[in-house]
Structure formats: structure tokens, C-alpha cells
Amino acid sequence: MGAILLDNVGATTLPFKELYLAIAPHRFHFLKNILEGYDGMVVLSSIDGKKGLVRLRYPDHFEKIIFDLLWALVPQISRF
Question: Is this structure's pTM higher than 0.85?
């Protein structure tokens, strides 16, 4: 777990979590556009593009929303 420093709040930091997923490799940009369309909610990074391994980094307070979105997107991003 790390922390995100918010400049406009002074020295306040928000903890963030990391989640690793295996998705259909050709759906990376689709997922990135959906998740990063919510400003400041999540950052999606590719770990291994050929295998579809990705990392999501997000503040704790967005966890439920992110999991709800991912659950709804399973049919579009699943490797199977």
C-alpha cells in the first residue's frame, strides 16, 4: 500500500490500494478509458500486454465503486 499526496490539502495523504487482474489483452484500452474516465478514481497500468496482466491503483474510498464497475465489465474484458 502506498500514499497519494494531495497538494491542495497540505500534508494530507490518502492510502491507495493495488489490484492485479488478467484481462483479454485486446481490451486494455477499453478498460483504461472506462476506469480513467472517472477523474482521480483509478490508474490502470499494463504489466504484460501480451498476457493481459494489468494493475489498478486507487484510493481506498473508491474500492466499492471500482469493484462494482469491474463486475459489470466482466463480460467485456474477460479472457475467456
Answer: no
